[in-house]
Design brief:
Layout: E1 2-6, H1 11-22, E2 26-31, H2 34-43, E3 46-49, H3 55-63, E4 67-70, H4 80-98, E5 104-110, H5 138-144, E6 151-157, E7 160-162, H6 169-180, E8 183-186, E9 192-197, H7 198-211, E10 216-220, E11 223-227, H8 228-239, E12 243-246, H9 251-255, H10 271-277, H11 286-291
Helix pairs in contact: 1-7, 3-4, 6-8
Protein backbone atom coordinates (compact mmCIF):
# COMPACT_ATOMS: atom_id res chain seq x y z
CA UNK A 1 0.00 0.00 0.00
CA UNK A 2 1.22 3.51 -0.77
CA UNK A 3 0.85 5.47 2.46
CA UNK A 4 1.06 9.22 2.98
CA UNK A 5 2.32 10.05 6.48
CA UNK A 6 2.27 13.51 8.04
CA UNK A 7 4.62 14.02 10.96
CA UNK A 8 6.84 11.45 9.31
CA UNK A 9 10.03 12.75 10.93
CA UNK A 10 8.53 13.17 14.41
CA UNK A 11 8.90 10.95 17.46
CA UNK A 12 5.99 8.64 16.62
CA UNK A 13 6.01 9.29 12.89
CA UNK A 14 9.62 8.21 12.34
CA UNK A 15 8.99 4.90 14.09
CA UNK A 16 5.77 4.45 12.12
CA UNK A 17 7.58 5.02 8.83
CA UNK A 18 10.13 2.37 9.81
CA UNK A 19 7.34 -0.06 10.72
CA UNK A 20 5.47 0.53 7.47
CA UNK A 21 8.58 0.13 5.32
CA UNK A 22 9.55 -3.07 7.13
CA UNK A 23 6.09 -4.47 6.38
CA UNK A 24 6.52 -3.77 2.67
CA UNK A 25 4.46 -0.61 2.32
CA UNK A 26 5.53 2.34 0.19
CA UNK A 27 5.77 5.55 2.21
CA UNK A 28 5.54 9.20 1.24
CA UNK A 29 6.32 11.45 4.19
CA UNK A 30 5.50 15.13 4.61
CA UNK A 31 8.80 16.94 5.19
CA UNK A 32 9.08 20.51 6.47
CA UNK A 33 12.86 20.80 6.15
CA UNK A 34 15.66 19.53 3.89
CA UNK A 35 17.02 17.55 6.85
CA UNK A 36 13.68 15.77 7.31
CA UNK A 37 13.50 15.03 3.59
CA UNK A 38 17.02 13.59 3.60
CA UNK A 39 16.24 11.38 6.61
CA UNK A 40 13.18 9.98 4.85
CA UNK A 41 15.12 9.31 1.66
CA UNK A 42 17.83 7.52 3.61
CA UNK A 43 15.21 5.14 5.00
CA UNK A 44 13.74 4.45 1.59
CA UNK A 45 10.70 6.70 1.89
CA UNK A 46 9.83 9.50 -0.53
CA UNK A 47 9.61 13.04 0.90
CA UNK A 48 6.86 15.47 0.00
CA UNK A 49 7.94 18.99 0.88
CA UNK A 50 5.39 20.95 2.89
CA UNK A 51 3.84 21.47 6.30
CA UNK A 52 0.38 21.55 7.89
CA UNK A 53 -0.28 25.00 6.48
CA UNK A 54 0.52 23.85 2.94
CA UNK A 55 -2.91 22.56 2.02
CA UNK A 56 -1.93 21.91 -1.59
CA UNK A 57 0.80 19.53 -0.38
CA UNK A 58 -1.69 17.77 1.88
CA UNK A 59 -4.12 17.38 -1.00
CA UNK A 60 -1.43 16.03 -3.30
CA UNK A 61 -0.15 13.56 -0.72
CA UNK A 62 -3.62 12.24 0.03
CA UNK A 63 -4.74 12.10 -3.61
CA UNK A 64 -1.76 9.99 -4.65
CA UNK A 65 -1.91 7.60 -1.67
CA UNK A 66 -3.87 4.45 -0.92
CA UNK A 67 -3.97 5.35 2.76
CA UNK A 68 -3.20 8.35 4.97
CA UNK A 69 -1.71 8.43 8.48
CA UNK A 70 -1.97 11.91 9.97
CA UNK A 71 0.41 12.27 12.94
CA UNK A 72 1.62 15.87 12.58
CA UNK A 73 0.55 18.58 15.00
CA UNK A 74 1.97 22.04 15.65
CA UNK A 75 1.97 21.53 19.45
CA UNK A 76 2.30 25.26 20.00
CA UNK A 77 1.54 25.33 23.73
CA UNK A 78 1.72 29.12 23.72
CA UNK A 79 -1.08 29.39 21.15
CA UNK A 80 -3.27 26.32 21.39
CA UNK A 81 -6.12 28.07 19.60
CA UNK A 82 -3.99 28.37 16.46
CA UNK A 83 -2.79 24.80 16.87
CA UNK A 84 -6.35 23.52 17.11
CA UNK A 85 -7.46 25.51 14.07
CA UNK A 86 -4.55 24.19 12.02
CA UNK A 87 -5.36 20.63 13.05
CA UNK A 88 -9.00 20.94 12.06
CA UNK A 89 -8.15 22.50 8.71
CA UNK A 90 -5.61 19.77 7.94
CA UNK A 91 -8.04 16.98 8.82
CA UNK A 92 -10.82 18.59 6.81
CA UNK A 93 -8.50 18.92 3.81
CA UNK A 94 -7.28 15.33 3.94
CA UNK A 95 -10.74 13.88 4.52
CA UNK A 96 -12.28 15.80 1.61
CA UNK A 97 -9.68 14.37 -0.76
CA UNK A 98 -10.46 10.84 0.41
CA UNK A 99 -14.25 11.10 0.18
CA UNK A 100 -15.80 8.26 -1.79
CA UNK A 101 -12.61 6.20 -1.94
CA UNK A 102 -13.04 3.95 1.15
CA UNK A 103 -9.33 4.44 1.72
CA UNK A 104 -8.01 4.37 5.31
CA UNK A 105 -7.51 7.69 7.07
CA UNK A 106 -5.86 7.39 10.47
CA UNK A 107 -5.42 10.45 12.63
CA UNK A 108 -3.74 11.05 15.97
CA UNK A 109 -5.96 11.88 18.94
CA UNK A 110 -5.66 11.61 22.72
CA UNK A 111 -7.46 10.38 25.83
CA UNK A 112 -7.43 13.59 27.90
CA UNK A 113 -10.77 15.04 28.92
CA UNK A 114 -12.94 12.30 27.42
CA UNK A 115 -14.35 10.90 30.69
CA UNK A 116 -13.75 11.34 34.41
CA UNK A 117 -13.59 8.91 37.30
CA UNK A 118 -12.60 5.84 35.28
CA UNK A 119 -10.31 4.74 32.43
CA UNK A 120 -11.35 5.86 28.95
CA UNK A 121 -12.82 3.09 26.79
CA UNK A 122 -12.81 2.82 23.01
CA UNK A 123 -16.61 3.02 23.13
CA UNK A 124 -16.45 6.48 24.72
CA UNK A 125 -17.22 9.10 22.08
CA UNK A 126 -15.21 12.28 22.22
CA UNK A 127 -17.19 15.26 23.57
CA UNK A 128 -15.05 17.66 21.56
CA UNK A 129 -16.63 19.21 18.49
CA UNK A 130 -16.07 22.36 16.51
CA UNK A 131 -13.00 24.45 15.70
CA UNK A 132 -12.61 25.84 19.21
CA UNK A 133 -12.48 22.42 20.88
CA UNK A 134 -9.23 20.61 21.77
CA UNK A 135 -7.51 19.44 18.58
CA UNK A 136 -10.21 21.39 16.75
CA UNK A 137 -12.68 18.55 17.30
CA UNK A 138 -10.74 16.66 14.63
CA UNK A 139 -11.61 13.15 15.81
CA UNK A 140 -15.34 13.69 15.41
CA UNK A 141 -14.78 15.60 12.18
CA UNK A 142 -12.87 12.65 10.69
CA UNK A 143 -15.39 10.08 11.91
CA UNK A 144 -18.22 12.06 10.32
CA UNK A 145 -16.56 11.33 6.98
CA UNK A 146 -17.19 7.59 7.36
CA UNK A 147 -20.64 8.27 5.94
CA UNK A 148 -18.92 9.94 2.98
CA UNK A 149 -16.84 6.94 1.98
CA UNK A 150 -13.71 7.44 4.09
CA UNK A 151 -12.35 4.64 6.31
CA UNK A 152 -11.63 7.06 9.14
CA UNK A 153 -9.88 5.63 12.22
CA UNK A 154 -8.95 7.51 15.37
CA UNK A 155 -5.62 6.74 17.04
CA UNK A 156 -5.99 7.76 20.68
CA UNK A 157 -2.44 7.87 21.99
CA UNK A 158 -1.49 7.54 25.63
CA UNK A 159 -0.16 10.83 27.05
CA UNK A 160 3.32 9.34 27.13
CA UNK A 161 4.75 7.41 24.18
CA UNK A 162 8.05 6.57 25.79
CA UNK A 163 11.49 5.33 24.82
CA UNK A 164 15.09 6.42 24.43
CA UNK A 165 15.20 9.77 22.64
CA UNK A 166 11.73 10.92 23.69
CA UNK A 167 11.48 14.69 24.28
CA UNK A 168 7.85 14.60 25.40
CA UNK A 169 6.13 14.91 28.75
CA UNK A 170 8.34 12.53 30.73
CA UNK A 171 11.41 14.34 29.45
CA UNK A 172 9.82 17.58 30.70
CA UNK A 173 9.32 16.03 34.14
CA UNK A 174 12.99 15.07 34.20
CA UNK A 175 13.95 18.61 33.20
CA UNK A 176 11.80 20.00 36.01
CA UNK A 177 13.43 17.64 38.50
CA UNK A 178 16.89 18.73 37.44
CA UNK A 179 15.93 22.39 37.55
CA UNK A 180 14.29 22.28 40.98
CA UNK A 181 16.42 19.61 42.64
CA UNK A 182 13.40 17.43 43.47
CA UNK A 183 11.30 14.95 41.53
CA UNK A 184 7.72 16.05 42.04
CA UNK A 185 4.20 14.75 41.67
CA UNK A 186 0.95 16.67 42.17
CA UNK A 187 -1.09 16.18 45.33
CA UNK A 188 -1.04 12.59 46.56
CA UNK A 189 0.15 11.28 43.17
CA UNK A 190 -2.53 8.59 42.94
CA UNK A 191 -3.81 9.88 39.59
CA UNK A 192 -2.51 7.70 36.78
CA UNK A 193 -1.31 8.20 33.23
CA UNK A 194 -1.58 5.56 30.54
CA UNK A 195 1.60 4.77 28.62
CA UNK A 196 2.92 2.92 25.58
CA UNK A 197 6.38 2.20 24.24
CA UNK A 198 7.20 3.82 20.92
CA UNK A 199 7.78 0.49 19.16
CA UNK A 200 4.39 -0.83 20.26
CA UNK A 201 2.72 2.39 19.15
CA UNK A 202 4.21 2.17 15.66
CA UNK A 203 3.13 -1.46 15.30
CA UNK A 204 -0.42 -0.60 16.30
CA UNK A 205 -0.57 2.20 13.74
CA UNK A 206 0.40 -0.27 11.03
CA UNK A 207 -2.14 -2.85 12.19
CA UNK A 208 -4.83 -0.20 12.31
CA UNK A 209 -4.02 0.88 8.77
CA UNK A 210 -4.17 -2.69 7.52
CA UNK A 211 -7.09 -4.07 9.52
CA UNK A 212 -9.24 -1.61 11.47
CA UNK A 213 -12.78 -1.03 10.20
CA UNK A 214 -14.17 2.41 9.45
CA UNK A 215 -15.17 4.37 12.51
CA UNK A 216 -12.77 2.59 14.86
CA UNK A 217 -11.39 4.34 17.92
CA UNK A 218 -8.09 2.61 18.66
CA UNK A 219 -6.36 3.08 21.98
CA UNK A 220 -2.60 3.19 21.55
CA UNK A 221 -2.14 2.20 25.18
CA UNK A 222 -0.02 -0.56 26.69
CA UNK A 223 -0.31 0.32 30.38
CA UNK A 224 -3.75 1.42 31.50
CA UNK A 225 -2.50 3.69 34.24
CA UNK A 226 0.85 4.33 35.93
CA UNK A 227 0.48 6.36 39.16
CA UNK A 228 2.19 9.71 38.75
CA UNK A 229 3.85 9.29 42.13
CA UNK A 230 5.48 6.10 40.83
CA UNK A 231 6.73 8.05 37.80
CA UNK A 232 8.21 10.71 40.09
CA UNK A 233 9.83 8.05 42.26
CA UNK A 234 11.41 6.39 39.23
CA UNK A 235 12.77 9.72 38.02
CA UNK A 236 14.07 10.54 41.50
CA UNK A 237 15.82 7.19 41.74
CA UNK A 238 17.38 7.59 38.29
CA UNK A 239 18.64 11.10 39.08
CA UNK A 240 19.49 10.53 42.74
CA UNK A 241 17.03 13.25 43.81
CA UNK A 242 14.45 13.39 46.61
CA UNK A 243 10.79 12.88 45.71
CA UNK A 244 8.16 15.30 46.93
CA UNK A 245 4.52 16.28 46.56
CA UNK A 246 3.76 19.57 44.85
CA UNK A 247 0.56 21.36 45.84
CA UNK A 248 -1.92 21.69 42.94
CA UNK A 249 -1.80 25.49 43.15
CA UNK A 250 2.00 25.37 42.75
CA UNK A 251 2.07 22.82 39.92
CA UNK A 252 2.45 25.25 37.00
CA UNK A 253 5.23 27.15 38.76
CA UNK A 254 7.06 23.88 39.44
CA UNK A 255 6.51 21.95 36.18
CA UNK A 256 5.73 24.71 33.71
CA UNK A 257 2.65 24.33 31.47
CA UNK A 258 2.76 20.57 32.10
CA UNK A 259 1.68 21.24 35.68
CA UNK A 260 -1.77 22.22 34.44
CA UNK A 261 -2.61 18.59 33.77
CA UNK A 262 0.06 16.44 35.48
CA UNK A 263 -2.41 16.14 38.35
CA UNK A 264 -5.17 14.82 36.08
CA UNK A 265 -6.06 11.16 35.67
CA UNK A 266 -5.32 10.14 32.06
CA UNK A 267 -5.86 6.41 32.29
CA UNK A 268 -7.29 4.41 29.40
CA UNK A 269 -8.05 0.82 28.50
CA UNK A 270 -6.97 -0.85 25.27
CA UNK A 271 -8.70 -4.21 25.79
CA UNK A 272 -10.96 -3.82 22.77
CA UNK A 273 -8.12 -2.57 20.57
CA UNK A 274 -5.94 -5.52 21.47
CA UNK A 275 -8.73 -7.98 20.75
CA UNK A 276 -9.72 -6.27 17.49
CA UNK A 277 -6.23 -6.20 15.99
CA UNK A 278 -4.46 -9.04 17.79
CA UNK A 279 -2.04 -6.47 19.18
CA UNK A 280 -0.04 -7.41 22.26
CA UNK A 281 2.40 -4.78 23.59
CA UNK A 282 5.88 -6.21 24.06
CA UNK A 283 8.04 -3.13 24.70
CA UNK A 284 9.45 -2.03 28.07
CA UNK A 285 7.13 -0.42 30.59
CA UNK A 286 7.41 3.27 31.35
CA UNK A 287 9.04 2.71 34.74
CA UNK A 288 11.48 0.20 33.25
CA UNK A 289 12.45 2.72 30.56
CA UNK A 290 13.11 5.40 33.18
CA UNK A 291 15.13 3.00 35.33
CA UNK A 292 17.18 1.92 32.31
CA UNK A 293 18.23 5.52 31.67
CA UNK A 294 16.04 6.31 28.65
CA UNK A 295 15.46 9.83 30.03
CA UNK A 296 18.46 10.42 32.24
CA UNK A 297 21.37 8.95 30.35
CA UNK A 298 22.21 6.42 33.04
CA UNK A 299 20.21 3.69 34.69
CA UNK A 300 19.58 3.27 38.39
CA UNK A 301 22.76 1.97 40.08
CA UNK A 302 22.54 -1.68 41.03
CA UNK A 303 23.85 -3.11 44.29
CA UNK A 304 27.32 -4.68 44.12
Amino acid sequence: MKVFVTGASGWIGAATVDELLAAGHEVVGLARTPAAAAALQEKGAAPLHGDLDDLDALRRGAAEAEGVVHLANKHDWADMAATNRAERTAVQTLAEVLEGTDRPFLLAAGVAGLVSGRPVLESDASPFTGPDAPRGGAENLALEHVARGVRSISLRFAPTVHGTGDHGFVSMLVDAARRTGVSGYVGDGTNAWSAVHRSDAARLVRLGLEQAPAGSRLHVVAEEGVPTRAVAEAIGAALGLPVTSVAPEDAVAHFGFLGAFFGQDLSASSTHTQELLGWTPTGPTLLADIAAGAYTGAGVPTAA
